[in-house]
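Project channel, design review

CF: Before we commit to the Panicum hallii constructs, I'd like one complete example in the thread so the newer folks can see what an input/output pair looks like. Taking RRM domain-containing protein.
RD: sounds good, go ahead.
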Amino acid sequence: MSAWQRKVMTEVFVGGHDGEVKEEDVRAVFARAGEITEVRMIMDARTRKNRGYCFVRYRESAQAKKAISEFCKVKICGILCQVEALDVSDKIFLGDIDKKWKKEDVMKLLQKTGVENIDTVTLMADCNNPSYNSGYAFIDLGRIEMH
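CF: and here is what came back for RRM domain-containing protein:
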């Protein structure tokens, strides 16, 4: 198994928390699933606050699976967050999306900028206000033939 495959199997995506959440807050919740080797908080360069999502890496893949099953919806500092496995498909993370946008708006933007082979757009709902999105989406691309 390659280092990249091990990383995918031992890491989880956590999204939906607010910019005030610190690494220690994430560790306090997710350590219940196992030994955490790394928490990567994705930071906004301008505000120096986190962007509302992070990645938690465990020592063992079984610990990551446990986190996904036990914490699929979990509160961090009182905010309901989503936990997902990393996907090994041709998936792109798209952040900083207008929270009022719908899936169709994201599709139009991608097509307008020349992105092709889009299979699906998964726009993550805001757990605290379902009429809004969480400001990010996952874009699944179709297979691209390399010549």
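RD: helpful, thanks. The chain has a mean pLDDT of 88.
CF: The beta strands are 11-15, 36-43, 50-58, 73-76, 79-85, 91-95, 118-125, 133-141.
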